[in-house]
Backbone:
């Protein structure tokens, strides 16, 4: 009986810690990668959830622009390269490959620096240059 109680307590603790350890603890680089992944998958809900309020309209335009093409991330890796006040600056390597009529156009991600803002306890894309 004691073993069952211990097992149940362990399972509950694991569930609670997993629920509390969601995206809020993700790094700025991880959040940037998740944004790019949601963008490539054309998942508007995820893109918006990974975007700061000031950037939501731009993010929706980006998703809409991808609706008529195939999109795939290729060898993408993101890392934080600096800070700008309270914001984190993230650069990703790799490409976002867009396919239309069997023609692939690669967007080189290392040409962009993403500005990530902590909003509601989560890193969110707020712009890129």
Residues:
């Amino acid at each position: 009986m004691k073993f069952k109680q211990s097992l149940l307590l362990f399972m509950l603790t694991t569930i609670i810690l997993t629920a509390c350890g969601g995206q809020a603890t993700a790094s700025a680089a991880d959040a940037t990668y998740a944004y790019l992944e949601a963008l490539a998958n054309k998942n508007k809900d995820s893109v918006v959830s990974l975007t700061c309020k000031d950037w939501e309209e731009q993010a929706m335009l980006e998703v809409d622009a991808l609706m008529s093409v195939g999109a795939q991330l290729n060898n993408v890796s993101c890392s934080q390269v600096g800070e700008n006040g309270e914001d984190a600056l993230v650069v990703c390597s790799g490409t976002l490959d867009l396919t239309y009529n069997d023609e692939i156009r690669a967007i080189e991600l290392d040409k962009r620096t993403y500005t990530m803002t902590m909003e509601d306890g989560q890193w969110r894309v707020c712009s890129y240059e």
Observations:
- The chain has four helices and five strands.
